[in-house]
Amino acid sequence: MKRTKSKVASIIFITIMALFIYMPIVLLMVYSFTTSKTIGEWNGFSFDLYVQMFNDPEIMTALLNTLIVGVVASLLASIIGVITSVGIYSMKKTGRKLMDGITQITMVNADIVTAAAFMMFFILVQIIPDGYATLIVAHTVICTPYVIMSVLPKLSQLDPNVYEAGLDLGATPNKTLWKVMVPQLLPAIISGFALAFTISLDDFTISTFVSSSVDTIPQYLYNKLKFKGVMPVLRALSTLILVVAFVILITINIVQNRKKKEKTMF
Amino acid sequence: MKKLKFKRQYFAFPYTAISIVFVIVPLAIIMYYAFTDKYTGAFTLNNFSLFLEPSMWKIIGISFLMAFLTTAICLLLAYPLAMALSRIKSNKTFIIVMMFVLPMWINSLLRIYSVKLLFNEFLSIDKGFFLSLIGMVYDFFPFMLLPIYTSLSQMNKSYFEASYDLGANAFTTFRKVQLPLSVPGIVSGILMVFMPSVSTYAINDILGSSQYWLFGNEIYFWFQKSLYNIGSALAFVMLLLIILSVFISSALNKLTEPTSRKSKQEGDM
């Protein structure tokens, strides 16, 4: 009796918390389909804000910038991350610990300190031109640890016998590594890539500090939210990004969860 | 197995080089700027003189108050929620937990914008300290929830049964068994919420009033004004705070878990 009571209480509490967390997001999404100036009044259902968004050159440029920086940086981060993971995996304990420390720096450090450090570096070393280049370099550096975090544990779970089998069948060690081992890691690499892309998409502080000439979506949003009043078109833009982000995240989770389930079946 | 390890560690070198050039050197540059004069480049502590001004003390005070309140509210909400989540016995648990963790990976500005819409426009609550606090709690909540949930769900349930068998009631079991065992999760949650709340500036810019300027706003201000030496001094202090908090949390973790070695707070994502 008491058990069921606390169970009901748990479920009610969970539901209330979920409502709190999703209420602002749902409100934002619902009101992206009406043109009213502020939230609360409903002007009838329409796609006008979306039409307005796709016709706004500033928004389209920012979207394109976000996409370019995100894709290039996460691709670079994935390549570097996979190569590094193989290296770390082959290291002895001390080396592993050291590398673990290095990968943790940007993850633990406050964004604003990392951002300021990047900014000073780019100002002093003027080889890298402000804009796409600084953004891509900075994003690649902050995204790589997440790829390593995703790939390295999977690498340790691989069956070393498969590697031996590759050697026994006459492949060179390098060929075995890239043709036999890496393909097994593909799910981890893909989720690492998606994670990197999300991190890039999420970043605001670092982008603001390292790039003054090229604006990504978060920078655009910040400038509009800080300096302009109400802009209904932002509701459509936010909804679009939210939906894209949710689709990516849910895909990563489903892939990872299925992997976990397969593991427990053995 | 042995053969796999031959010379492959060199693959980690490019990344190590990248990290040195783009992470460690820039941090060293910040330190250099913090301790040198803008014009002469000579060693000086003048960049830190800002910390002697009462206005700076007010900023630090408000930042810490804001960070403390954010962390406390997040903890008070996240712990019961994590407990409730860890108790669900269902094949849907994964989906329910994911629902709470997902927002963590959504752009924080978007979430702040949605909070602004709800409170500022829908409920007509004015910008200010209170709204800023709501925004921070909303933004950082998943970072508190995830580590606590991870530590609670990985707990060996037979400890609780043992506690009940030994005659303890539910509250005593919670206080004497579950709570101490979840300390590493709590510590890592606090770490993940407190420091970002001290250093963020975007949330306060959008939801707060300029009356309650935070430490993050201050750092941003000096860099924006191209006064890099003072900005670097502030960023350096922030860096010290982070290093300090990492040390405190790892010390706390060592203190509280003499038996189990495994306490990695890596959640589902």
Helix content of chain A: over 70%
Model regions low in confidence, pLDDT < 50 over at least 5 residues of chain B: 1-5, 260-269
Taken from the alpha-carbon principal axes, the silhouette of chain B is globular
Based on CA atoms alone, the radius of gyration of chain A comes out at: 23 Å
What portion of residues of chain B is helical? 55-70%
Assign an overall shape of chain A: globular
**Major sheet attributes of chain B:** none
Identify low-pLDDT runs of chain A.
none
Could you say what the CATH topology of chain A is called? MetI-like fold
Number of strands of chain B: 0
Q: What is the tally of helical segments of chain A?
A: 11
Look at the structure and name the CATH superfamily of chain A. Answer: MetI-like
Number of helix segments of chain B? 11
Distance between the termini of chain B: 29 Å
Short description:
The complex is a heterodimer of chains A (266) and B (269). By secondary structure, chain A is mainly alpha-helical.
Folded structure, characterized:
The complex is a heterodimer of chains A (266) and B (269). Chain A has one domain (57-265): MetI-like fold (Orthogonal Bundle). Chain A has helices spanning 2-30, 48-54, 57-89, 93-108, 111-124, 132-157, 160-168, 173-202, 205-210, 217-227, 233-265. The model of chain A has no long low-confidence stretch (mean pLDDT 85). Chain A has 266 residues and is an all-alpha fold. Chain A contains eleven helices and no strands. Chain B is mainly α and 269 residues long. Chain B has a domain at 53-226: MetI-like fold (Orthogonal Bundle). Chain B has helices spanning 13-34, 54-87, 93-101, 108-122, 129-153, 158-165, 170-181, 183-199, 202-207, 215-224, 228-256. Chain B is globular. At the A-B interface, helix 1, helix 3, helix 4, helix 5 and helix 6 of A face helix 1, helix 2, helix 3, helix 4 and helix 8 of B.
